[in-house]
Amino acid sequence: MFSNKPLIAKSVKYSWLITYVILFLIPLLLCNILFVLVDGTIKDQVDRTNYFALKQIQQYMDSVVADAARIASSLAFNDRVQAIATFKGDISPKERYDIILLNRSMQSSNYKSEIEEVYIYFKRIDTVISSKHVMDSEKFFDLFAERYGTDAAKWIKINQEMHRGSFVNITPQNKQLAYMFTYSINQNADDGINVVVIINLSNFYKMIDDLSIINNGNVAIIDENNRVILTSDNLDLMPLLKFDGFQNNSLTEYTSSDGKRRQVSCINSNMQGWKYLYIMPKDEYWKQLGEYRKLVLSGISFSLVVSCIVAFLLFKKNYEPIKRLLKSLKGHNEEDKGMINEYRIIQNAILRSLDDKKELEKWRAFQKKLLSERYLKELLTGNAAEQTDRDTAGIEFEHDCFAVAAFSADMEKPSTVLNLNLQEDIELLHFIIMNILEELLQDICKLYTINFDNIIFCLMNFKEQDEKYMTKLKDAVTTVQETVKEHYKVNLIIAIGNIYNGKDFIKQSYKETRQLLEFEEIVGGEDILVYSEAKKFLLNDICEKINNERKGTRRAEDEIINYIRENYMDEELNVSTIADRFDLHPNYLSRLFKQQVGIGLLDYINMVRIEEAKKLLKSEYGNLETIARKVGYTNVKTFTRVFTKTEGITPGKYREKFN
């Protein structure tokens, strides 16, 4: 946003005053010099000026043309594009999926601003694919014609022809340009594709205005066949010209068919073979020169005096707002003390404001996420407050029917793709499950997910309490289980509670999923458990076994806590290694530890590590990389993420706070 190049150390008022004086004096000085040389050099000067202007336009247009050709060529020979080019007849689902992928690929392409639009016309299937649309050709070309003000039938005919990298005028006025490239399978105009790149010419016309070369004249571009490619606004002169008479890098006098003398500057492009012309009536030069002589001789002495007065008044007027602004900014930061340059002071203030804004936005997003997670936890456990907490968390329920589903990874069958002892991989699994469920269940319920005790709980807000929704839910979680197992090698244990009418029964559905997960851990068997179908089992006997094992776990509680505090610096310390150490099931140990201690086992490990890290940060012990490894993290990135999530501040900011 801002340049890192140092600004001038002196105050801006000195440079401003000098600049104003120079701005007034230089034109006056140049006028005197030009009048000495004007008679012998005016023709050469006009030639150089027009050549420089045309050269910039030529280089710019050559670059745009090259980009258009490159884009068209890369799309025409793209594997997916060539595959779609072979489609014909009715489109199969797989072929439609390929078309959607191509559309998305074109949407994600970042073309330069000079490329206004790119589309591909597939003749076999009579379909146009662009970054914005996928539709049949007739509808697309009607919209295209309406947008660009051209004849739809004529444009359709042009698109049906073969083009080997040719440029076509979209409008009769030669104001809009398109590059067209045809790829044909059998060298047949009716059997292939046309890649069309619409060029945005706004910069082209802006360059003409900015360069101040339109002085009652015309700028024109013609190709090697003397066909008009582009023109400026004044079109009435173009039919009078015979383009073959103009030479490259030359200034030529020419008499048009209406008897008027004109001067034409011309340069050629080696890349396209195009000619760039600037045509101006010769009388315009001498008319302007005569007026200029009268004005300069009478006004040069008067301007010398007035320029100094105006420079001072302008400086005083323009500097006053900066002066007031500096009063409110200077001294607000230690870096500004002793600084003279006003631009640097303002720049520093803006940069500080932007940094503060970014930090505030990050903090707000972090707090909103925490509030949302807290509210969902309280809702599941039956401790949620009423409307105030829900509004603060940004959660809105549209219906009155709720159910809870739980997704737990089977730690006894570790994944070869994800390491579920790492928080980032758990969050990735959470993200995958949430996206699949939202896609499958978006028509029947709204979803809210949370990672709670390393179990992903999904709260579903259904439209009504209907058995058909439970059937769809079971189908959806089956798809989730199969997808995750196939692509990520994670075996999911899934528990589904009953659908209840009323927010007060969310806790009951949550308890049902908990009971089902504990039932599966003790008994084993099915990986997808539905509470309404599990009542036939002897849950009382299973609960008795769970209670007996909990008593054994309570006795081991102190030993586990001591083991964590003695081994927190071990990078391999996680739920699985602790479970192996105490001969317990990882999922079972993690949940019972949460019930006994009030915090998840992985969260407790992170808490101990962060406590030790805070001590080291306060004591200025080493850099962040050293501290991260000292407390058991394999890299500083993971350490920073966990520290920020726990403390709400980065380790670096925490160290600055205490040192």
UniProtKB/TrEMBL annotation:
It comes from the Bacteria. CDD domains: PDC2_HK_sensor (cd18774). Keywords: DNA-binding, Membrane, Transcription, Transcription regulation, Transmembrane, Transmembrane helix. InterPro entries: Homeodomain-like_sf, HTH_AraC, HTH_AraC-typ_CS. Residues 558-657 form the HTH araC/xylS-type domain. One of its GO terms (molecular function) is sequence-specific DNA binding. The keyword Membrane applies. The chain crosses the membrane at residues 14-38, 295-315. The keyword Transmembrane applies. This is AraC family transcriptional regulator.
